[in-house]
Description:
It contains 18 helices and twelve strands. It has helices at residues 16-31, 50-63, 77-89, 140-150, 166-176, 206-211, 216-224, 239-245, 260-273, 276-289, 299-309, 318-323, 335-340, 346-359, 365-378, 383-395, 403-410, 412-423; strands at 3-6, 35-40, 69-72, 93-96, 99-102, 108-113, 117-122, 129-132, 155-159, 182-186, 189-190, 256-257. The strands form five sheets. The chain has a three-stranded parallel β-sheet. The longest helix has 16 residues, at 16-31. It is elongated.
Amino acid sequence: MIRVRFAPSPTGYLHIGGTRTALFNFLFAKANQGQFILRIEDTDKKRSDKKYLEEILDSLKWLGFNWDELYFQSERLQKYQEFADKLLKEEKAYRSEGAIILRMPQMNLKIEDQIHGLIGFDTAVIKDQVLMKSDGSATYNFACVVDDADLKISHVIRGDDHISNTPKQVVIYQALGLPIPKFAHLPLILGKDGGRLSKRTGATAISDYRKMGYLPEAIVNYLMLLGWSPGENQEIVTLDSAIRKFSIKKVNKTAAVFNLDKLNWINNQYLKKADTKKLTDLLIPILQAKKYLSEEFDREWLEKIVKLYQPRLNTLHDFCDWADFLFLKKPKFSAEAKEKLSGPGLKNAFKLLSERLEKLETFEMANTEAAFRELVQELNMNASELVHPTRAALTGKTIGPGLFETMVILGKIKTLERLRAAIN
């Protein structure tokens, strides 16, 4: 039975690197009808915090990584002591200043890594390993081995930064006479500057990406491409589809580079295809936080706006940047929009346009466009000469969806108010 584990420590939030490790463990387990175990490494009582634990669990659920079993190292201290006592009894370990220390045997170790192939280690350069500290707590490497063996973990999939721990752990497995799992070390994720991922280059908590308006499907899709590919240059891959295709042997040996532009592009692909009703549900709290929606808002009208702007969104928050003019009494004018309003003859054109639009009995795309085009022809203007200034007057922006769609969504009263304001 394939059993893998993701073992976060609740001394900080779940970041991009840890999430990619959790994802590859989850994909490997599900691709092989195995089990995905979550083990919380909470033995550091001073630094462990309930708020970090809650964020880790919440983020994993949000991403869709549902675990099969959950364990806490803090509840397993007795077990570590039993295994340490066994090594003392067999004289494979000794006591020194209250700590229990493993005698490091001198040998050349070879480990077949599932990603990197054969890796060799000389244990002569590794000092004796502390197993239990003088305060009665287990060290990371010892607790890790005892847990992985006890929980029958078949494959340990983790970051490259753990390669140096592997020979120490293998020696502990051998000393205890326990079966050694297979190891797979994932190359690290680098920042675009080529250095280790930092806050500046994308090592932000998953909960922050959630607040920034990224969809869980998009984050999962992007992270799986950091080191693995489903083939055929496919870039939009759902979790279910990845499970059917995933192989640990096909994970890249080289480090991947985190690219926020690529994440934005993938998020845009998911937002474009999202169900408009569900997308509206996600946007309502964001709009309410900005006080853009009253208690009694027109849901149907809001969905029309969401549908109009859906193709343009990279994140949920982009909606507020694009569509704020629909919720504000007056639009916020960009410098470019102000420039568009300074053209010659615009006062007269806006005056005539507002008169024509006011006469319309129904304010729909077909007749607003007809009225606009008739006027442009009479004034002997190119349509674009009036389209861009009109958009600027109505929205405060120089780009957006079609002008006539925008007019209809804005409504007759606000359209006329804003054209008249532009005249003045």
